[in-house]
Amino acid sequence: MGIVPNPNESISRMKIICIGRNYVDHIAELNNEKPSEPVVFIKPDSAVLPKEQDFYIPEFSQDVHYEVEVLVKIKKVGKHIDEQFAHKYYDEIGLGLDFTARDLQTQLKEKGLPWEKAKGFDGAAVVGKWLPKTNFEDLNNLDFQLKKNDEVVQKGNTAHMMWKIDELISYVSRYFMLKKGDIIFTGTPAGVGKVNANDYLVGTLNDKELFSLKIK
pTM of this prediction? Predict the structure, then answer.
């Protein structure tokens, strides 16, 4: 069994814009080169895991990794957004997972090929509950974590981002027009690892649970 489309769910037209290598500790754990500017890639809207559905490990990978990330939902159209005005383009903050077929990604990187098959497959983007950004005193000081089977496996704070939320919005909008409903995945801290059948994942932002799901 795989991802089952929900016929009652309206067709999504958002872009999922992901930022790679935005936490130094994660760059180090994967032995990647530290970038001089944000690493950007996109997942299709079909990558979003339907609400209340389990995640099924795809048959083409033996090494799917979890990557917990703070999310930002764009609320209006913007292009070439100045960093000082970026805060006007979002009202909600969330938490999600960027599932990655690490074995496939490694093969593609070795050949100098794009990552989409390893990052954009069906169900590869978990989007949790959204919270008003006004709930938080400082968006550059948000604690978040991921538990796997009740054990904390990833722990991060947005203070450790190489590029902060408003910087990312400004940077991304140089290349892509941002539209209402677009989601930015802002990068993952160290601690990424493999998921196995029957694992149970729970993500929290400032101690509030924003998603939970079972691996099949």
Answer: 0.91
